[in-house]
Design brief:
The complex is a heterotrimer of chains A (about 290), B (about 270) and C (about 375). Chain A has helices at about 1-45, 50-60, 60-95, 100-110, 115-125, 130-135, 145-155, 160-170, 175-180, 185-215, 220-225, 235-245, 250-280. Chain A has about 290 residues and is mostly helical. In chain A, helix 5 packs parallel to helix 11. The longest helix of chain A is centred in the N-terminal third of the chain and has 44 residues, at about 1-45. Chain B has a single domain, classed as MetI-like (MetI-like fold, Orthogonal Bundle), CATH 1.10.3720.10. Helices cover about 80% and strands about 0% of the residues of chain B. Chain B starts with 8 loop residues before the first helix and ends with a helix. The mean pLDDT of chain B is about 90. Chain C has helices at about 40-50, 90-100, 110-125, 140-150, 170-185, 195-205, 220-225, 230-235, 325-330; strands at about 5-10, 15-25, 30-35, 55-60, 65, 75-80, 155-160, 190-195, 205-210, 215-220, 240-250, 250-255, 255-260, 270-275, 280-285, 290-300, 305-310, 315-325, 340-345, 345-350, 365. In chain C, the strands form 4 sheets. In chain C, strands 6-7-8-3-9-10 form a 6-stranded mixed sheet, sandwiched between helices. In chain C, a hairpin with a 2-residue loop joins strand 9 (about 205-210) and strand 10 (about 215-220). Classes of the chains: A mainly alpha (about 290), B mainly alpha (about 270), C alpha+beta (about 375). Chains in contact: A-B, A-C, B-C. At the A-C interface, helix 9 and helix 10 of A face strand 6 and helix 4 of C. Chain C: Keywords: ATP-binding, Cell membrane, Membrane, Nucleotide-binding, Sulfate transport, Translocase, Transport. Chain C: InterPro entries: AAA+_ATPase, ABC_SmlMolc_Importer, ABC_transporter-like_ATP-bd, ABC_transporter-like_CS, Mo/tungstate-bd_C_term_dom, P-loop_NTPase, Sulph_transpt1, TOBE-like. Chain C: One of its GO terms (molecular function) is ATP hydrolysis activity. Chain C: This is Sulfate transport system ATP-binding protein.
Chain lengths: ~290, ~270, ~375
């Protein structure tokens, strides 16, 4: 009896050691790879003290960049919100030829390099682009101006809301909406009283992710921005410009605001998952972005 | 034409198509149009320029290595998060999404600050001859950073759905721990792992913001393809930019196709289980 | 308001869910659509509700084209199989939904809506639960909320899709009786879909038996059980032993036993299919010439009924018979004993000589006479 117990005990000990080793390896990687960069942002921003940090943020360019970032997000996010709802409604409540292709198209911006997202708009609206001469003749500017920033942002954040809604609405099915119809509800009544309440948390979740990306987007807006200080520099572009001018404290000060936004987004996202997980079906959709 | 039961088909599909057409298809058509104006011979010639070739090699080679690393790390982290209970697990789980949430420019300067010769990590690595910032290795680090969540988030639901009774069944049938992993768990996980790998790869290939700060951007050495596009645009070389952009877009489309096929393949298991 | 369905057809990719269906539903009727899954009964219900449309055929209500009226305006109350309750609304809000979405001109006042909802909740015995959400209710309670919600709009027609399908056996029987009473009280026309024959036969005034998109038989529960019109109905409703008969020289034979004169016109050679219910097999302990010798293999007692398994060598098959459990005990039936079996009533269909298919239209009920050797009583 005791002879058999010894190897069993040893095996259990080995398995526990293996488990501890795996957990430690994962923890170590996450700390080194995720936490350390985050800590570095705040440490660099405060390197010369709180006063220098506040002064860097108080500069007028910083204010302009913050306002522009908020403006771009305030236009791009609602646009993609409406698109996401419309696309999800069509995709989950009806059968039509080419549905799989439409699904792939919605996902396309996620697999395109942000630089290419900017490039295509330059080719479309730039001085040598398709609509360039026409725009110039009418005194309109898209590239190196706010409309270009909005368009590039819309492109890269297009899938977020749709991607959250499609799997959820697919899983919910259309029976409640059919019930609303047999009870006499018209289209908008059905939408606002039945559909929208059922998808509200997933919608908020998608908007949250969409907004984080819209405010933090760098590559695509960098291509169409032209880097005109105070006019076409969003916060990430302001970070880049200050960094390239060796104003490290200034760059990290603005970066720390963006990092805060990321942390708030993560916290809100976790809260939503924890509180309304089954109404978001977040985990079932797998990888996002 | 069959009548639709629920309202709004025409409105929602029409709006979605028009929006996609304007925001995505029309601009991509502009790129295709520009590329077709160049002609295939000239296109290949442009891509074969040594500096372009070096940039493409770094973007794809680096992305491949980074995605492989992400696969291994993602499997480890995903497994630990799903299978083990330990204090701080929820926090760790939330933190996985940090590379998604953190703007790429912020990630770029933070990684640079860490790995620069005088940085927190660089000052320990540099004396051992490990140069990361301003070198190709830096490109790799940034690519691993941005691609890592894809693997974890793709694997997690599948790992959660792997019922432990299947493993217990394997054990009662006499399989060792290693056999159980290789013969029972790995075959179900493989398509999902490949999907995560492909997603991380696609992201790393096109990554710009987090890479350019740490890379040092030395031509022929640590210059990535997206940066080359940006430089060509700044020099008003639209033809060169369009050529390189088209090549990268085609690869992205291929990767997207691969992901779609992989997801269909991995769903095969889901049906068997249901 | 008579509802008439004429030549209704509906195809889904590859199969016909409805194939030339004709049916009339009279005012105040309680109709069951009964059939196995895939028989088209739910499709028929959804077409009545306006949630699906036929490829061909018409649906009229007192001559008015119902297909031109969309689901919203049809004044139909539909209870979904899984209820489709609005999960974000309370019980009260669910029931009030149909009234609240009315255009302002015809919308009742708040107080009136509240009063009506209250009354309905009392009627479905859910008073006091109005503030609960659907997730906080039991299956039976959810079912009654769905019913109250459907009734709130004062429908002309009440439709129920597998109304008891998702409930426990006990709740099911109680709700069944209750629904029947409700139907009688309200005087509604009610159509419900079920795959449970007991449910259909117990509840409905008329039963519509469906199979593969076609109506096999329409009739009262008694008629469906006692005069099944097609081989499918014989097999689907109740239990039946299936026999192959031979037609020879103007007579019908089952194995060596002459049952009756051949009831069909020429050709009088060939085969026929017959069904005999377990309770229509008479048994005798004495050997008789008119009958099949059989060996009793098993006796199962289920409640008050004894099921007997009889091995009939002359037919090369096993027949199932039934009798009262007490009777079986009194007569000392035990496995291994030899009995004589006489079929007393059969439903028979001639087989078409060319296709080998049974001809439903030529159905005959056979009541064989066995002369002096008839098993009059158990001896």
């Amino acid at each position: 009896m005791s002879a058999a117990a010894a190897p069993r005990g040893a095996r259990r000990w080995r398995s526990r050691a293996a488990r501890a080793g795996l957990v430690l390896a994962a923890l170590g990687f996450m700390a080194l790879f995720l936490l350390l960069p985050l800590a570095a942002v705040f440490a660099e921003a405060l390197r010369q003290g709180a006063r220098a940090f506040l002064a860097a943020i108080a500069q007028p360019e910083a204010g302009a960049a913050i306002r522009l970032t908020l403006l771009v997000a305030a236009i791009a996010v609602p646009l993609n919100l409406v698109f996401g709802v419309a696309a999800a409604w069509a995709m989950t409540r009806f059968e039509f030829p080419g549905k799989a292709l439409l699904g792939a198209l919605i996902d396309l911006p996620f697999s395109v390099s942000p630089v290419i997202a900017g490039l295509v708009y330059v080719l479309l609206f730039g001085a040598q682009g398709w609509f360039g001469p026409w725009l110039a003749a009418h005194g309109l500017q898209v590239i190196f101006a706010v409309p270009g920033l909005v368009l590039a942002t819309v492109f890269v954040t297009l899938p977020f809301v749709a991607r959250e809604l499609i799997p959820l609405m697919q899983a919910q099915g259309g029976e409640e909406e059919e019930a609303a119809r047999t009870l006499g509800a018209n289209g908008w009544q059905m939408f606002f009283r039945v559909t929208l309440p059922n998808i509200r948390w997933a919608l908020l979740y998608g908007v949250l992710l969409c907004n984080a990306r819209a405010m933090g987007e760098f590559g695509a807006v960098s291509v169409v921005s032209g880097h005109i200080r105070g006019l076409t520099t969003t916060m990430p572009l302001e970070v880049e410009m200050r960094y390239n001018e060796y104003d490290y404290v200034g760059a990290f000060a603005v970066a720390s605001l963006l990092a805060l936004l990321a942390l708030v987004t993560l916290a809100a996202k976790s809260l939503l998952e924890w509180r309304y997980g089954h109404e978001i079906a977040a985990r079932a959709t797998g990888a996002r972005r | 034409m069959r009548r639709r039961i629920l309202p709004g088909f025409g409105l929602s599909l029409g709006y979605a198509l028009a929006y996609l057409g304007l925001v995505v298809l029309l601009p991509l058509a502009a790129l295709a149009w520009k590329a077709s104006a160049i002609g295939p011979g000239q296109l290949l010639h442009l891509l074969a320029a040594p500096r372009t070739l070096a940039a493409l090699k770094l973007s794809f080679g680096g992305a491949l290595l980074a995605a492989l690393a992400d696969g291994a790390i993602g499997l480890l982290v995903g497994w630990v998060l799903v299978r083990y209970r330990f204090p701080g697990r929820r926090l760790l789980d939330a933190l996985v999404d940090l590379p998604f949430a953190l703007p790429t420019a912020v990630a770029g300067i933070a990684l640079t600050a860490l790995y620069a010769p005088n940085g927190w990590l660089g000052r320990w690595l540099e004396p051992h001859g490990l140069k990361i910032a301003y070198a190709p290795a830096g490109v790799l680090v940034a690519m691993v950073f941005v691609g890592f969540p894809f693997v974890v988030r793709t694997l997690q639901p599948v790992l959660e759905s792997l019922e432990s009774d299947v493993e217990e069944a394997a054990t009662t049938l006499g399989a060792t721990r290693a056999q159980t992993f290789l013969r029972v768990i790995a075959p179900v996980l493989l398509p999902t792992l490949l999907t995560g790998f492909a997603l991380a790869l696609a992201r790393a290939v096109g990554e710009y913001g987090s890479v350019i700060f740490i890379a040092g951007n030395l031509p022929m050495k640590s210059e990535i393809a997206p940066l080359l596009i940006v430089q060509q645009l700044e020099e008003f070389d639209y033809t060169g930019a369009a050529a390189l952009g088209t090549a990268m877009l085609l690869v992205s489309l291929l990767l997207l196709l691969a992901v779609t096929l992989l997801q269909r393949w991995s769903r095969r298991w889901a049906e068997v289980r249901a | 308001m008579t509802i008439e369905l004429a030549r209704l057809s509906r195809r889904f990719a590859g199969f016909a869910a409805l194939d030339e269906v004709n049916l009339a539903i009279a005012p105040g009727e309680f109709v069951a659509l009964l059939g196995p899954s895939g028989s088209g009964k739910t499709t028929l219900l959804r077409i009545l509700a306006g949630l699906d449309y036929p490829d061909a055929g018409t649906v009229t209500q007192d001559g008015r084209d119902l297909l031109a009226v969309d689901a919203r305006a049809r004044k139909v109350g539909l209870v979904f199989q899984h209820y489709a309750l609005f999960r974000h609304l309370t019980v009260t809000e669910n029931v009030a939904f149909g009234l609240r979405v009315r255009p302002r001109r015809v919308r009742p006042s708040r107080a009136e809506i509240a009063a009506r909802v209250d009354k309905l909740l009392r009627r479905v015995q859910l008073d006091g639960l109005g503030d609960r959400y659907p997730s906080q209710l039991s299956g039976g309670q959810r079912q009654r909320v769905a019913l109250a919600r459907a009734l709130a709009v004062e429908p002309d027609l009440l439709l129920l899709d597998e109304p008891f399908g998702a409930l426990d056996a006990q709740v099911r029987v109680a709700l069944r009786r209750w629904l029947r009473h409700l139907h009688e009280e309200l005087g509604l026309t009610t159509v419900f879909v079920t795959h449970d024959q007991e449910e259909a036969l117990e509840l409905a005034d008329r039963v519509v038996v469906m199979n593969r998109g076609r109506i096999e038989q329409v009739g009262t529960p008694e008629a469906i059980y006692q005069q099944p019109a097609t081989p499918f109905v014989c097999e689907f409703i109740g239990k039946a032993n299936r026999l192959t008969l031979r037609r020879r020289n103007g007579a019908l034979y089952a194995g060596p036993l002459r049952l009756d004169a051949d009831p069909w016109p020429a050709p009088q050679e060939g085969a026929a299919l017959a069904y005999v219910r377990p309770e229509h097999l008479a048994l005798s302990a004495t050997a008789l010439e008119d009958g099949w010798p059989a060996r009793l293999r098993h006796v199962y007692l289920s409640g008050s009924i004894a099921h007997l398994e009889l091995e009939v060598e002359a037919l090369g098959q096993v027949l199932e018979a039934e009798m009262g459990g007490e009777e079986a005990q009194r007569r000392g039936l035990h496995p291994g004993m030899t009995l004589t079996v006489q079929p007393r009533a059969l439903t028979a269909f001639p087989l078409d000589p060319a296709s080998g298919e049974p001809e439903a239209a030529a159905r005959r009920t056979l009541r064989p006479h066995y002369g002096q050797a008839t098993v009059a009583r158990w001896r």
